[in-house]
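Ticket #4471: structure output looks truncated?

Reporter: J.K.
Steps to reproduce: submitted the chain below (624 residues) through the standard prediction queue, then opened the result file.
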Amino acid sequence: MELFPFDNMRPVQKQMISDITQAINDGKHIIAHAPTGLGKTAAALSPALAYAIENGKNILFLTPKHTQHHNVVETLRKIKEKYKINVNVVDFIGKVWMCLVPGVQSLTSGDFAEFCREMKKEERCVFYNKVRKTTNLTKDAEKLVKALTAESPLNVEDVCSVCGKCEMCPYEIACELGKGAKVIIADYYHIFHPSVRKSFLNKTNKELDDCIIIVDEAQNLPERIREVLSSTVSTFSVDRAVAEARKFEYLEIANQLTEIHNILIDLSEQRFDEKKETTITREDFQKRVVDATGIDFETLAGEFLVAGEKIRTENKKSFVGSIGNFMQFWVEEGDGYVRILREKYWKDKRIIQLNFRCLDPAKASKEVFDSCHSAILMSGTLTPTRMYRDLLGMEEKRTVCHEYENPFPKANKLSIIVPDTTTKYTRRNEAEFEKIAKWCGDVVNAVPGNVAVFFPSYWLRDQVLKKFERLSSKSIFLERQGLSKKERLDMLNEFKSFSNTGAVFLGAAAGSFSEGIDLPGKFLNAVVVVGVPLESPDLETQSLIEYYEKLFGAGWDYGYIFPAMNKVVQACGRTIRSESDRGVIVLIDERFTWKNYFKCLPLDWKVVVTKEPVKRIVDFFKNA
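Returned output as attached by the reporter:
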């Protein structure tokens, strides 16, 4: 069965479909580095769906961002229309974003989960009550599920809109749709959070061994899993918990939390050196808490959790409960974790953080990949593929790795390294910033139309900006941290409006604009990346390097260099989005010519190292 949704298939797309078909037939996993524009979604869905229909399997299509769900739904609609087949599809986003209760979007995922559970348990959620009586669907809910199934595939926004009019819980309706769905579109969190996965699969009546998992933008997966398996507490959050406990008259708990606050302060005074961070053992913190409170550590965590549940019935969220959640993380034993005490400042106020950080994403992902029928991991920045296989705990003999060529004409892209400066920490000074600004100004002014420039950090961007402003002939847009979704979209649209006269966007390589935005055609003619966006060499980064060296013998590559260079390649991918696009990539830093960094750049870039970038850029656009 062939279910390719479009009339024309590129040769490289055909090869990817063939490789995916073989992997699924063999019950294997495939890691596919597939450049932007290849048509990854269609290339993965068409063979996976064909196999699922013929063999009674299901598809879990996982993405890291809400906006990417639309492309999947649209592809499935095209398949349905072209082949006249009924494919039941359900689209999920985070449960909190599907909830109709006002004000819950400000809650943390943990607080919302507890709030939701208590509301259902006490039968106080009117939206849930309209969907279920005990575990059975109401008659109105049955009718709605039947009507939505007939219109499948729908975006999650469509389902939420219909449910809002009927005052029914969108998540519960989606779960019911999921029981009959051949394809479930969801976030990483639904499958790679251990406790969420168990509940999610149960509510949608799915078994992992009957599922083909497709992971889009898979370069994000290791870091996302590490975040899910990590937790942080601070003197700030403990202070809020103390105030909350007193407000709700949990006076003994308030005293116990005060002791924990004092322990954090004492540890910082005893252990900090000039770096203001230190590792802490699991036993050290636990013993101090037990000695100060006279209560077993896990028992105390349970008391905080119970108090938190009661507080949430009135307050939706609970700082006391959050401290209890952190303590549950803290008791985890074994390798693959690091515990770090760190000093931070917020609005000039000193804060002591205690961090429980997961180093090993395989602690959550290995079970998933061992259990599922087959998995397809794909991205335009998934190199080296073996690194992702190793980090995610995917069985070597069951995993095939492929790197596909860029389908676009090579003549449409000019890739340049300017090796005349660096953002290396030991070389950061005013003279170097002046030199960087000069190179950026020359490049930006030579490119007709819009240019995006990405820096390792906002701080470094701002140092260069002071000197760049007087050199740029284009209007300047500055990315700001903490922008809302609407603010980001408004800025993007305004930037696009300058495509005829030209503007320059200055952001960070790890910011929200360096990944996931689409600026095809005339909207972006060049991307400049200044410096290598390496992580700070703090204790967590050092621990990652040491842990990956111990496991794979590749600590510096897996824990430091490859992740930084993937950010570079991801940012550069904003410029060439279709076969007709032409664009320039400029990397400004001498380290890009060093072997350890240069080897991470895609071979099809055909990079030119030059100190005369302006001439090459002018000639490139002149010969368009």
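Triage note (M.O.): checked the attachment and the full token line is present. The chain has 26 helices and 20 strands.
Status: closed, working as intended.
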